[in-house]
Description:
This protein is α/β, with parallel strands linked by helices. The chain has two domains: about 5-180 and about 360-385, Rossmann fold; about 190-355, Rossmann fold. It contains 15 helices and 13 strands. A seven-stranded parallel β-sheet has the order 3-2-1-4-5-6-7, sandwiched between helices. Helix 8 (about 215-230) links the parallel strand 8 (about 205-210) and strand 9 (about 235-240). It is globular.
Amino acid sequence: MQRLRVMRVLTRMNVGGPSMQVTTLQRHLDPARYDQRLYTGHVGDDEADYQALFAPDLPVHRIAGLGRRIGPGGDARAFAQLYAHMRRFRPHIVHTHTAKAGVLGRLAAVAAGVPVRVHTFHGHLLHGYFSPRATRVMVGVEAALARRTQRLVSVGARVRDDLLAAGIGDAVRYRVIGPGTVLPTLPDRAAARRELGLDGSGPVVAYVGRVTGIKRPDRFLAAARLVRATVPDAQFVVCGAGDRLTATRAAAADLGPAVRFTGWRADVHTVYAAADVVLLTSDNEGTPVCLIEAALAGRPCVATRVGSVHEVVVDARTGLLTDPAAEPLAAATVRLLQDEDLRARLGRQAADHAATQFGPSRLITGIDRLYAEIAVEHGWWPEHETVSAPV
Length: 391
């Protein structure tokens, strides 16, 4: 049986769910079955590099122009490089991740005659990113590309349903394969708080993620002020960076030392260990890895009811979901901070749910089965190889 050649294309390796998933697949899909190569652009100046922080040993082919910034010159260079690499590597499958890589990678794969294109939607750009006109253009592009893509992977059922409702792809092409991750052993809570420079006396609410518009850091600060009106010794940790970090720091000046900005940390599990509650305030999400990590750490989450968040946080069972506004988010956070028994129960149930639904084996097995299905369809593997290899 021949090894499948898989060319994986990601816009950039910034800290976030797509980079984590790609790294997991590159490291853990069976090398006896797959010859994988990863192609990615450069992270922006205001972003943390996932590879540098978490995967310095991961082999990566860097593609100039494939980063976040869009421009005809850089995009054309990235397309040309991807096309050239495809002609040399001759992949059976080009698997793209995130929007820009999905466009350039799939167009290059069509031009290079790659037999199979697969694209993963780690979320979508249908709400909260662009003007209505730009969104219509984006939907048209994605719909056209979906017709030339043999398999579409969604990280959550709600994300898939939103894309289908927008006319992007058809149900038969989609597979729902959620993220998968693990956390290192957590440090002692008191030690974690000392490491972060936190006062040990008050409860801690953590935010982990990009500090950018769609994540609504302004809403996080508004909720923090409301929480402190009822729980005056509450402290807040913001672990992350992004284009709104400077503005968010400035806006938090009135909160003083009650809000600590840590930037991205390679030991993000220390942040979860220090926290009592994890808060997510986004307008739009796919399946947020930060909520999975928080659950694995046994920390209940308060989050907005958007995207596939409800597939990670089961309302009133593993955390609390609210409408996307500061007042209900603050009220839910206060409820957890003031009820230790509820907080502990939801945390235990969150850990059990996350370990079952979002362990790395679920992601690895799901993609392995998908690739095997494709290989059998094209006669590259015999029929019996539709059964996934042990993980």
